[in-house]
From TrEMBL:
Species this protein is from: Ephemeroptericola cinctiostellae
Family: Belongs to the Glu/Leu/Phe/Val dehydrogenases family.
Full protein name: Glutamate dehydrogenase
Catalytic-site annotation from UniProt: K114 (proton donor)
Keywords: NAD, Nucleotide-binding, Oxidoreductase
Function per UniProt: Catalyzes the reversible oxidative deamination of glutamate to alpha-ketoglutarate and ammonia.
Subunit structure: Homohexamer.
Length: 434
């Protein structure tokens, strides 16, 4: 806090992890050797740079971009790029810190990183987005590489943006080595990568329920967001027999009590991904309720999957969910629940999965994309999905191993933080101080 007084999101993420780690390290002091904790809260490298580009009207625009190379103890820095006006050093440092633990949990050899820009892709033409991505790569290309740092997508960065950045990476480096994941299928992308984060979030919820002898069949589900993660969480939850009754965006929540079935979801995906339209327009055109300015959390349901952004579910929202009988929360977004909301869920004893465990399917499948690129082969959809499913089960098991309490209940926050930490800490200690 003394070093980073103006970085609330970063301090929030560190506090949450340290709350789990402190009692564990007191019992296992070897994990404090070589100042592992002190080193873990300091990114290995932070790169900040200017991105200047020319818009369609001929005006010069200036944005700020970053890459946080947080920790490479277990593999190359790995984590997405975010394009959103809210992007700043605090948000990217929190994401890179979380990513380090998450990537460790995947069982794959990937370190932690994150990056992005305050560029807002909303309302920009394809040509503007391309020129921005190319201008950004003019600097970023010298800092990344298949064995150094492998970025991917995140909020505001989907297949289109990854494609444009990959093109310029090849041009600048004269090398076709795979430097981004989340690529298109025609140039090295993996099947199931677009679906992986949302699917994984639901697989994790399925594991938590199964651990208590329950299942998704017949459950009602609230989902926030309507982007990449939310869409595929909706698809998988529906396939597994649940009924998803909400999606949302930054303008409000669409509430469809009869459920968002495959047909409705296909229409929403076309609207969001191809037309880049708004949920409110979809609701108006199809006679669905749209609650402007509202998040979904006041609506009664069995499960909640927050899949939009950080701090989108606060203490009051948690209390409203609990009062309505929520049994399980599986985070698709990164840190969507505030510290107070997490505390409320843990206190109530419901199943609560932190994003670093439940949304790790995305980066895990990025790891599988790297493996396929390295062996120059592509696995089938079934093979990748089976590997993703197995990884989510492994992560769940690891959380159970480190998070089971004296009364037999599982604290998934402690479980994920400790399991993620142990591997990174062992690797850091074995490699000495560097
Ligand atoms: P997208 O850009 O595809 O979608 C983001 C969704 O969240 C949109 O519906 C957007 O609404 C909404 N949203 C974004 N910012 C805000 C805000 N400040 N307030 C309210 N709504 C907001 O991003 P993703 O689906 O890829 O990412 C969603 C979350 O999942 C993020 O936390 C991300 O870090 C996390 N995540 C993503 C992974 C991935 O593989 N993509 C992997 C692991 C985690 P609108 O359209 O109105 O902006």
């Amino acid at each position: 806090a003394r070093r980073d007084p103006n970085q609330p999101e970063f301090l929030q993420a560190v506090k949450e992890v340290m709350t789990s780690l402190w009692p564990f390290i007191e019992k296992n002091p070897k994990y404090a050797s070589y100042a592992v904790l002190e080193r873990l809260v300091e990114p290995e490298r932070v790169i900040q740079f200017r991105v200047s580009w020319v818009d369609d009207a001929g005006n010069t625009q200036v944005n700020r971009a970053f890459r946080i190379q947080h920790n490479n103890a277990i593999g190359p820095y790995k984590g997405g790029m975010r394009f959103h006006p809210s992007v700043n050093l605090s948000i990217l440092k929190f994401l890179a810190f979380e990513q380090t633990f998450k990537n460790s949990l995947t069982t794959l050899p990937m370190g932690g990183g994150k990056g992005g820009s305050d560029f807002d892709p909303k309302g920009k033409s394809d040509a503007e987005v391309m020129r921005f991505c190319q201008a950004l790569m003019g600097e970023l290309y010298r800092h990344i590489g298949p064995n150094t740092d492998v970025p991917a997508g995140d909020i505001g960065v989907g297949a289109r943006e990854v494609g444009f950045m990959t093109g310029y990476m090849k041009k600048y480096s004269n090398d076709t080595g795979s430097v981004f994941t989340g690529k298109g299928i025609t140039f090295g992308g993996s099947l199931v990568r677009p679906e992986a984060t949302g699917y994984g979030t639901v697989y994790f919820a399925q594991e938590m329920l199964a651990h208590k002898g329950d299942s998704l069949t017949g459950k009602t589900v609230l989902i926030s967001g309507s982007g990449n993660v939310a869409q595929y969480a909706c698809e998988k939850a529906t396939q597994l027999g649940a009924k998803v009754i909400t999606l949302s965006d930054s303008e409000g929540t669409i509430h469809i009590p009869e459920g968002i079935d495959a047909t409705k979801l296909a229409a929403i995906m076309e609207l969001k991904n191809v037309q880049r339209g708004r949920l409110s327009a979809f609701a108006a055109a199809n006679g669905h309720a749209f609650e402007a300015g509202q998040r979904p959390w006041h609506i009664k349901a069995d499960l909640a999957l927050p899949c939009a952004t950080q701090n989108e579910l606060n203490e009051d929202d948690a209390k409203a969910l609990l009062a309505n009988g929520i049994i399980c929360v599986s985070e698709g977004a990164n840190m969507p629940s505030t510290l107070e909301a997490v505390e409320a869920f843990l206190h109530a004893g419901i199943m609560f999965a932190p994003g670093k465990a439940s949304n790790a399917g995305g980066v895990a499948t990025s790891g599988l994309e790297m493996s396929q690129n390295a062996i120059r082969l592509s696995w089938t959809r079934e093979e990748v999905d089976a590997k993703l499913h197995a990884i989510m089960k492994d992560i769940h098991q690891n959380c159970v191993k480190y998070g089971t309490q004296a009364d037999g209940s599982v604290n998934y926050v402690d479980g994920a933080n400790i399991a993620g930490f142990v591997k990174v800490a062992e690797a850091m200690i074995a490699q000495g101080v560097y």
